[in-house]
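Lab channel / #folding
Pinned by the channel admin:
"Please post every new chain as: sequence first, then the structure tokens as a reply. Keep commentary short and put observations after the output so the thread stays searchable."

First post following the new format, from NK:
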Amino acid sequence: MAKWTLNGVQFDISPQRDTGWYPELVLAKQHIPNSNTTLLQVGGRQSEIRKAEGFTKSSTVLQTLIGSVGNSVSLTDHHGNTNTVFVESVITEEVMDITNMTTGTFKYTISMIKVS
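Reply from TO:
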């Protein structure tokens, strides 16, 4: 596991499940009826995006992740790079964990867009 900090709250992520920053192409597809080809219009690149997954038993981390959706926040990744990111989505799922049945363990997936 590696450590990330989101708005001052530190949490674990799985480095193997981190995509790193990558840009998406701006792409429009158009298919004309009865045609055998598709017209593609490529118009540059969008802001860089990143997805990562991890596990947490901390309710503070869970609430910070969920509360960050739709907001621009400060993110410091496990490489020590700090960026302002817009959190597009956080998907959580409770998983069975015999070591901590009362609190629960949550798997999360976070999707972000780099602002700066």
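NK: The first helix runs from residue 59 to 67.
TO: also worth noting, The first strand starts at residue 2 and ends at 6.
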